[in-house]
Amino acid sequence: MLAEALGHLVRGIVDNPDAVRVSARNDRRGETLEVRVHQEDLGRVIGRQGRTARALRTVIAALADGEPVRVDVVDTDRRRS
Q1: I need a surface site. Which of 25, 28, 43, 52 has the fewest CB within 10 A?
Q2: Which InterPro entries does the record associate with it (predicted)?
Q3: Which pLDDT score, from 0 to 100, does residue 75 have?
């Protein structure tokens, strides 16, 4: 449910909503949600000084109802060496 909610929120703020991918995995520290977006939308999801990403994390933490959850915005730029 958290991954679907995060995907819905992110699709609402990007220019390329079809490129949004949210994957969830569980480990000993709790659930981790990885958000992947089109490279042109990365700045929009992170926001100025990380404000948008912080707001997304706050909303997801509230929905998690006290369970540990981590939200990572993954940079998928393959041009780096």
Answers
A1: 28
A2: KH_dom-like_a/b (IPR015946), KH_sf_prok-type (IPR009019), KhpA (IPR020627)
A3: 79
Give residues with Cβ within 8 angstroms of 48, minimum separation 6.
Answer: none
Is residue 23 in some structural domain?
yes
CA distances from 57 to 14, 19, 64, 72 (A): 17, 20, 10, 9
3-state SS class at 21: strand
CATH of the domain at 42: 3.30.300.20
Contact present, 19 and 41 (Cβ < 8 Å): yes
Give me the mean pLDDT over the 32-36 stretch. Answer: 94
Are 35 and 73 within 8 A, CB to CB?
A: yes
Query: Is the pTM above the cut of 0.70?
Result: yes
Determine, yes or no, domain membership for 80. Answer: no
How many folded domains does the chain comprise?
1
